[in-house]
Amino acid sequence: MGSGSGIYSEGEFSLDAKWLVDPKQLLVGPKIGEGAHAKVYKGQYKNQTVAIKVVHRGETPEEIAKREGRFAREVAMLSRVQHKNLVKFIGACKEPVMVIVTELLMGGTLRRYLLNLRPSCLDMRVAVGFALDIARAMECLHSHGIIHRDLKPENLILTADHKTVKLADFGLAREESLTEMMTAETGTYRWMAPELYSTVTLRHGEKKHYNHKVDAYSFAIVLWELIHNKLPFEGMSNLQAAYAAAFKNVRPNAENIPEDLGLIVTSCWREDPNTRPNFSQIIQMLLHYLSAISPPEPIIPPRIYASENTVFPPESPGTSSLMAARHDSGETPTSNREDNSVGFFSCFRHCY
Questions:
Q1: Which phi and psi angles does 172 have, rounded to 5°?
Q2: What is the pLDDT of residue 7?
Q3: Which of 9, 107, 139, 262 could form a disulfide with 257 if both were Cys (CB 3.0 to 4.6 A apart)?
């Protein structure tokens, strides 16, 4: 239902009219991803290639209420926060099904990218560059009072040229509150901060106090993975990894990481959340490390026009360096429009 203020509202779900998607203009193509409660399709919206996330409502009244609440929070946060390292939000609708439309990134997930690279590792400058992208996205979220709670390689998407990482999936994100008790057992065990678990057992739905520093812990595990290109807590199940981290203070081995980079990793996964750095500090530490391993390129002196008979003194640079020319080339990725796209309602009948 609409209102004079241009706000679409229905129950817990409210959205500025400019973000409201017309489902009749959605063309749904092939499925490109699937989670426990949603499927993601490549599609078209108003002649733009997009990613279409279709959220399954659930079966029981409790499931429906929980998923509608999560959907409403995700849409609210996506529509409120924009950053070059966050997947761009295009719009959403709640009826006839819950749909979130975002830009389509053709580079795939960071998880898939790393798996395809194994057993090789990322160049350290590339790894730190990706880490900076992630840290900047998280700094933006935290500056808006939002905790992501599910930072992991599956929720990090690469651009088509594999040069930029963007954070996606706000399904578990919550606004931070000093008084609210938030639900534990959110996110994925292997990347979850120890304070998310019960001190007695890993019971589902346990309520605990925690803050934005849970994302710093998850970032440390992701950074470790970027450096080593190995699964953290290798050889353990997800539950075993969670138990080891929470109750035995076990962390992945950080001995073979360069000292300055190792300091970032180990400070971010400290047991006491209050001693972990915030993302503004993390960004500065990463930039400092990057400048140490990649010193600025030497400045090329301006082109000098001289006669053919000019003689340079011995201490002067050679003619080749003075006259060097730089040739930069760029490539713009293109995406092919799917010919097998179908109308939204037609797709929905086949989705569930």
A1: -110, 0
A2: 53
A3: 262
Q: Assess whether 215 carries a catalytic annotation.
A: no
**Tokens 């304070």, residue located:** 195
Give the tokens for residue 105.
Answer: 């990134």
Structural domain boundaries in the chain? 7-104, 110-293
Check for a shared fold between 7-104 and 110-293: no
Could you tell me if 160 and 107 are in contact, meaning their C-beta atoms sit under 8 angstroms apart? yes
pTM summary value: 0.75
Class of domain 7-104: alpha beta
Q: Which of 47, 26, 44 has its CA nearest to residue 343? A: 26
Q: Is 248 annotated in some ligand binding site?
A: no
Active-site entry in 22, 123, 133, 150? 150
What is the longest distance spanned by two Cα atoms in the chain?
A: 89
Q: Is 5 helix (H, G, I), strand (E, B) or coil?
A: coil
| CB-CB contact of 46 with 342 (8 Å) | no
Identify which of 194, 53, 169 has the alpha carbon closest to the alpha carbon of residue 110: 169
Low-confidence residues in the chain, pLDDT < 70: 1-14, 170-187, 197-210, 295-352
Compute, in degrees rounded to 10, the torsion defined by CA atoms 154, 68, 39, 139.
Answer: -30
**CATH T-level topology, domain 110-293:** Transferase(Phosphotransferase); domain 1 (1.10.510)
